[in-house]
Design a protein that fits this description.
- A four-stranded antiparallel β-sheet has the order 2-3-1-4, with helices on both faces.
- The termini are far apart.
- It is 32% helix and 15% strand.
- By secondary structure, it is of the alpha+beta class.
- The longest helix has 22 residues, at 109-130.
- Helix 2 packs antiparallel against helix 4 (109-130).
């Protein structure tokens, strides 16, 4: 494929040597295209996004869901990928797994999120066609943010953040009219890692 000079090359924000299919806890944030307030504007879309999130364990039996919230222009959620072979249940992610020798059978976080985004768009497109709504069908931004949760302290802090996020919308980093900074953002995205 020939790349034109004006095209931007997408840079992966994932850890290069990390196996995103291994058992562990993952915090994900998925934003809408151009930070549009689609979930505030279209309650039907918000219902689709919630319903499809809740159905993820039906599609991927090796995952469990934890805290989840829909904000006006993004979602936050915690996904546990569980070790179905040992029936141990969900755990926190271990340190980097640098061996790529074994065959992967579990889906990666990226495959789970990609499937979720695709199903939501398909359901939304069907809804807007059936109801003659003049709006965009593709409402997600291209990528998503994920954070590997490595210990109970981080898990508790992220669960609390998700739970109280609607009350702190004016400080949310995804709010285009944000009026301050949330200390959680500083912890997660910067100094507190």
């Amino acid at each position: 494929m020939i790349r034109l000079d004006s095209e931007k090359q997408r840079k992966s924000i994932r850890l290069k040597e990390y196996d995103y299919s291994q058992s562990g806890a993952y915090f994900v944030t998925i934003c809408t295209y151009n930070q549009e307030m689609y979930f505030e504007q279209y309650p039907e879309l918000k219902a689709i996004v919630l319903g499809q999130w809740q159905k993820l364990p039906d599609r991927f039996p090796n995952i469990e869901l934890d805290e989840f919230v829909i904000m006006p222009n993004h979602i936050h959620g915690i996904i546990f990928i569980v070790d179905t072979d040992s029936n141990v249940g969900a755990g926190l992610a271990p340190a980097l797994n640098l061996s790529g020798a074994t065959a992967r059978v579990a889906p990666t976080v990226g495959e789970i999120i990609g499937s979720y985004k695709s199903i939501c768009i398909t359901k939304w497109l069907r809804y807007i066609r059936q109801n003659n709504i003049n709006t965009l069908g593709k409402f997600w931004q291209r990528n998503y943010y994920e954070h590997i949760i490595r210990n109970k302290h981080s898990l508790n802090r992220i669960q609390e953040y998700i739970h109280y996020n609607p009350l702190k919308w004016e400080l949310d980093r995804e709010n285009p009219a944000r009026i301050g900074t949330d200390e959680f953002d500083e912890w997660l995205y910067g100094k507190g890692k």
